[in-house]
Amino acid sequence: MADADVNPGAPLYGEPISLDRAKAVMAAAEADAAREGWPMVIAIVDSGGNLVMLHRMDQAQLGSVQVAQQKAVTALQFRRPTRAFQDAIEQGGMHLRILALSNVLPLEGGLPLMREGRIIGAIGVSGMQSAQDAQVARAGLLVLV
To answer: Nearest 5°: CA angle at 61, between 18 and 121?
Structure first.
């Protein structure tokens, strides 16, 4: 059975992001955070979930190191932005079951990285409010468009 048959509409995994592409994504995300004056931690994982890059900007809180990585891995493993989980929890009810999953970080700021319609990795950002984390992640994502 093909992967697309198991989860129709979900993007397929592709080749791992190259270091050069990861550097470009990182540079764009860091530039956005610096422009805003936000001390952030930015993590990039490849399509296998392996850490490719992690930058902790000066004065970024230490707790954000792990959070940024978890956001990236959640976005990769579930092939969707982490905001989808945050939104589901806000709805309450049966969606609160997400909180029982140990491998989901339901906070905005994690995005899959796509190339030619396939997931090549993911970016996770932490350090400010979730919406600000997401803004910085999107800035990195735009390099791949």
So the answer is: 20
Range of the domain at 37: 16-144
Look at the chain and report how many structural domains it folds into. 1
Note the pLDDT of residue 18. 97
Q: Has residue 2 got a pLDDT over 70?
A: no
* Cα–Cα distance measured from residue 26 to residue 136, given in angstroms and rounded to the nearest whole number: 10
Q: Return the closest-CA partner of residue 35 out of 25, 27, 47.
A: 27
Q: What is the mean pLDDT of residues 41-54?
A: 98
Both structure tokens of 1: 């059975």
Distance of CA 91 to the CA centre of its chain: 22
Q: How confident is the model at residue 7 (pLDDT cuts 50, 70, 90)?
A: low
Beta strands in 8-140 (DSSP E): 12-13, 41-46, 51-56, 110-115, 118-126
Domain membership of residue 39 (yes or no) is yes
Overall size of the chain counted in residues: 145
Q: Is residue 2 part of a domain?
A: no
Residue 110: CB atoms within 10 A of its CB come to: 36
| CATH for 20 | 3.30.450.150
